[in-house]
Amino acid sequence: MKLALGGVGGVAAVLVLLGARAALHAGADPGAALRADARRVHCLSAKQRPELVQAAVRLGIAAPGSTDARFLPLRDGRPAAPRTLDEWSRTSPADFDRACGPLAAVTGAKSLQDPPPKPELWKQVAANPLCTLLLGAFLTFATAAATARTARRQTLTDQLNSAAAEYLKAAQAARVARSRERAADVTGLEGRRVDLLSALLRAGRRGAELRNLQGLLETAHKAVMAGPFEAAPAEEGLRRLEAALVKAVRGGRMLSGGRT
After folding, report:
1. Which one-letter DSSP state was computed for residue 75?
2. Given this model, what pLDDT does residue 155 score?
C-alpha cells in the first residue's frame, strides 16, 4: 500500500512539473510583437502624428512647441536637439512607447491593446484540468488507503481482543478446575495460548510491549498449569495478564471471561 501510494505521488509530481513547464513555455505571447508594430503604425499615421506629439508633451516627454518636423525631446527637464518624429521614435523607443500606448488605447482599435496579464504560473497549473483530475485521484487514493489501514488496524485489534478473551476464559476455567482438584483442559488452553501469541504478532505488537505481554502470558500460563497447583500465584498472574491485555487492545473495554 505504501509503495502504491508513493508511486501515485511520484506520477502526480511528474505530471504537475510537466504541466508547469508547458504553462511556462506557453507564457510568451507570440502576438505581442505584432501588436507593438500595429501601435507604431497607428501612432505614426498622418492622422495621429499631431496627437502623438501632444501626448508626448502632456506626459512630459517632449517640450512644448514640439511638432512632427521639429520634435524636442526632454532630457533632465531640458529640451534636447530637435529631430523629426520618426527619428525620435527610433532613437527613444521606450519614450515613444510611453506616449504611443495611451494614444492607441484612446484612438485605436481593441486589437492594438495588450491582453490582461496572465495569472501566476502556480495558478495556471492549478487551473489545468489534468492537474485537477490527478489531484482528485490522488486524494481519493490516499483516502481509500487511509480507510483501509484503519479498517485493517481495527480488524487486528478485534482479533487480539477475541484471542485474549478466549485465552482468559480457558485459563480461568483451568484455574477453577485445578483449585477444585479437577482435570483441566490442557490441550485447549495451550491452543488458546498459541492463538493469543499469533494475534499479538499480527496486531503489530513489537519491542518492549510484546516482550512484556509474552512474559506475563508465560508467567500466568505456568502458574495455572504448575504442579503442585497454587491458587494465589495463578490468580495474580491472570489478573496482571488481563490488565495488560485490556491496555493492549487500546479500547479499554473489559474482555469477556473474567475471574470467577
Report:
1. E
2. 86
Instruction: State the CB neighbour count (10 A cutoff) for residue 128.
Output: 19
The length of the chain, given as a count of residues: 260
pLDDT at 10: 56
Determine the Cα–Cα distance for residues 74 and 57; give it in Å rounded to an integer. Answer: 9
**Contact status, residue 138 vs residue 64, Cβ threshold 8 Å:** no
Q: What are phi and psi of 130, to 5 degrees?
A: -65, -40
Distances (CA, A) of 47 to 18, 34, 50, 65, 120: 49, 21, 7, 19, 39
Distance CA 253, CA 102 (A): 78
| Residue 108, pLDDT score | 84
Low-confidence ranges of the chain (pLDDT < 50): 5, 8, 23, 26, 252-254, 256-260
255 with 164: CB under 8 angstroms?
A: yes
Q: What is the pLDDT of residue 254?
A: 39
Question: CA–CA separation, 154 vs 165, rounded Å?
Answer: 16
**pLDDT value, residue 13:** 55
Q: Whole-angstrom Cα distance, residue 135 to residue 3? A: 18
Whether a cis peptide bond, with omega within 30° of 0, leads into 30 is: no
Q: Do 238 and 221 meet the contact criterion of CB atoms below 8 Å apart?
A: no
